[in-house]
Amino acid sequence: MDLKQELVYIQTNIPITASLGATISSFDGQTINISVPLEANKNLHGTAFGGSQAAIGILTGWALIYLKLKQLGIDNNLVIQKSSYDFTKPVTADFIATCQLPVPSEFELFVKTLKEKGKARLSLTAEIETEKGVCGIHQGLYVVFLKL
User: Which domains does the chain have, with CATH numbers?
Assistant: First the structure.
């Protein structure tokens, strides 16, 4: 999978991602890492703007599902249904957002439900980290619809 090409697709279809400076650092089929520069997201306090952090949290889960389902050849429409973000520390440097798929049995049930019912939901957690450790945690509930 060409992550640069996938990033272009994401930036074209979710334009805010280009403004945030988000890039896909890695995707191994189970975990995604998205790198984000502080400079493009700095607030008046010199830390990452909370809205940027929340948007990156949403994006990280969204991109993980998008890439995994593309890898599996499942054509779909994907949206966020519910989102919450816990700010644990100020983000004072470039940061990385990481998200991992749930255990295989849970993900397999999600895919089975999607194929059988044409719709399925998946809860994911993304962490925002700097060299100081975890600075924020995003909880998202994503809904996927099969394309007809």
Answer: 3-146 (3.10.129.10)
